[in-house]
Design goal:
The protein is an alpha/beta fold. Helices cover about 45% and strands about 15% of the residues. The strands form six sheets. The protein has an eight-stranded mixed sheet. Strands 25-26-27-28-29-30-31-32 form an eight-stranded parallel β-barrel, surrounded by five helices. It has a six-stranded antiparallel sheet with strand order 2-1-3-6-4-5, sandwiched between helices. Strand 1 and strand 2 form a beta hairpin. Helix 7 packs antiparallel against helix 8 and helix 15 packs across helix 22. The N terminus is likely disordered. The chain binds phosphoenolpyruvate (PEP) and magnesium ion (MG). The site of magnesium ion has 5 residues, from helix 33.
Length: about 900
Amino acid sequence: MFKKQRGKAGNAGRYAKSGKFVFFFGRGKAEGDRTLRDLLGGKGANLAEMTNAGLPVPPGFTISTAACRLYYEEGRKVSSKVDAQMADQLRKLEKVTGASFGSMKNPLLVSVRSGAKFSMPGMMDTILNLGLNDDTVEALKARTSNGRFARDSYRRFIQMFGNVVLEIGKEEFEHELEAVKHARGVTEDPQLDEEALREVVERYKRVVATRTGKPFPQDPLTQLRLSRDAVFRSWQNPRAREYRRIYGIPDDIGTAVNVQMMVFGNTGDRSGTGVGFTRNPATGAKEFYGEFLINAQGEDVVAGIRTPRPIAELETVMPKAFKQLRQITTRLEKHYRDVQDFEFTIEDEQLYMLQTRSGKRTGYAAVVIATDLVAERLVKPVDAVKMVDPEALSQLLAPIFDPKDWQKLPVATRGLPASPGAASGQVVFTADHAVEWSRAGKRVMLVRKETVPDDIHGMFVAQGILTATGGMTSHAAVVGRQMGKPSVVGAGALRIDDRTKTLAIGDHRLKEGDWLSFDGLTGEVKMGQVATRPSEILQVVNGELKAKKSDIFGRFNQLLSWADKVRRMGIRANADQPDQAEIAYGFGARGIGLCRTEHMFFGEGRIAIVQEMILADNETDRRAALDKLLPLQRDDFYGVFKAMHGSPVTIRTIDPPLHEFLPKREDLMVEIARMEATGGTVGLDEKRKLLARVEQLHEFNPMLGHRGVRLGITYPEITEMQTRAIMEAACQLTKKGGKAVPEIMIPLVGDLRELRDQKAVVVRVAEEVLKEYKVKVKYLVGTMIEVPRGAVTADEIAKEADFFSFGTNDLTQLTYGFSRDDIGKFLGAYQDRGILERDPFASLDVSGVGELVAMGTQKGRATRPDLKIGVCGEHGGDPSSIHFFEKTGFDYVSCSPYRVPVARLAAAQAALQEHALD
Ligand code: PEP
Ligand code: MG
């Protein structure tokens, strides 16, 4: 049985000091075990663990990730120490196997495979059949009495070695293979006999000689050294780097190299090879899942040249090996307490395990498996909380494509995956058309260069939102996530012509009404229609499906309730409307962390009043317009308070520049010119007046202009109206027996005096309202910390603030100096060059922006130890940022309603990690 694990730090630390770079495994004993993943990589650690457990693993050794790091430190050179240790371990391998390199009696053949700490399937290189040369190929023939097999193995080896190590294009080998097939009048590889393969080998060797100027290396040790170096090199190949970038795997950890005795699945009909999972990785169902091929090597399964057979059929073909495989994999699952993804080879009915690792799975399967493992008492609830990737939950909420239908279409272009979910609809280019078409029963895809606040009605009815510009915190991205609407932004290849209502992607031109589809989880955009299905969980939260009728909802809820037990931080939602607040509550948010009041200005019939307020050139007119807005805002606030059932609701006073609410200057100019040219006079004067005011309000840098607290300071009557609306709503609900906990928040504060100015207005009006209503409502007045100066002077600002909410969107924008709406133009180049690993608007830049956040927290609490601190930037829904907020001692995170489950789980994992609870 499996041995007990030794202490992790003990092992790793011991080996780091000893300078040991090469670790042996074989004959029931290994020098490493599963705790050494950092050093041996996932594959190496698991091979060692399986060997120690007495499982049939071909013996070999692992060259550690430390050796790889040293290789790069020394300018892509293998240290003599590593070389010497490898030679020692090779001798040991020869002893254990009774085979040796270059032997004519029993030649040792090995595989050489990469294996990093985190699995990176197919990203790096593998070489099989190493050790074959012109002599040993004859020995292999003699040993197996199969000349065709021996030649075929040699041919595969030269091809792989030529491609991976000598970097000769695959097609050059394919070309020779095809030539021989053609000459022999055959079409399939298996039709080539020994003689034909001998010719292929000769041709391959000629390719190598011509392309490298040297003969194919015959010495097995040289072959091994060159292959090892090629695997180290492959750590930095473009596809491996891209994979690491996507999955956030560090670039400097390096890969290990596993050298292992070859076993052959292609010696005849009593041999085979396959891969499998202990449970279904797509659905999570408890079923043995996988496929195999008779008389084949591993690469044949992956390459898709032959169609593999379902693993259940192995039972009839080779019942003994099948039974053993079932026993071993069941044991492995129990040992690792997780689904295993395994590889095996059967050589002459003898089973060998080549790999086992934790199986990758869909979000759906992750939840099913975690809850099943608890039910089967294999893991505890707290382990289930640790094992599900929080992002898996967001996959469960999004509409989905049938993967088969989706794969049928080619990818037309890609954008940033701003909000997950499958979307398919007919292209429209304006929000008004989106509404018009959807009223006519059509499913539309809103395609815009960028979205602006008054596109909101079109965004609401669209299946998905696709923009050509903008980053992860652009308007389309933020609002898309808040609505739970699939969105892809910054798809730079889109050429949108609003005038002709056409869209070009490369050479293809789409017109309004053509179908377009995208996956908001990956950012892939395709031309054409693909059917989608709504998420079952969302149907339950919306009240369209009974919770009891949904198995997956029950599991989802169960997992989150376990998470809630260990979570320390509170979870709130960013929501502006009562319906969004209700959904957020349904997902488990207990509080609103940000209600952006200006988003309410775009409801039915409001924009005209807002424009009236902005256009007013004196206070009396402005107050008249504000009086009309007051009851509308009050009703919204009432609804939000009610939806939160007594949890706190943070409402922010108006933030964006006022001109965002007015028509575009260029549009007005065109309209006026047209009216003048055609002699139209009706409404001309109003249009001219509007244009004059729009020009007056024009700013060169609106993001740094007249917005946030600056608006409240110049127009205190707006703050007055909003405070009154908030407090009246709270009083009305209280009078009706409900409970409201308003937290009034001032945005963009960088100086204590700004907050002091606005707080005075808020407190004055709030007290007035409380007196008028004669009820008691506790309210707080706080501020956003989103300007670097606000963080730096947080000790001062805290004198006037009951709470801080970090606005990490603006804080990132102002710290980096990257415009949140324009980063899409250069982010890709930054990531390609390794300047940025992740989008700082999606995942907090801990070392820069994070320092300001930590400083603001520490300074704020130095003044006021009980200062309530949260975050309402988009980072509040990002698992790795949530870890940082936990560490920094935040009270809560706030995110879009549909991210609430992700945040609940991520906050629980962060608490477990930070406080080592279990
Ligand atoms: C922020 O800046 O982080 C924030 C939440 O405010 P907004 O996105 O509305 O600017
Ligand atoms: Mg902001």
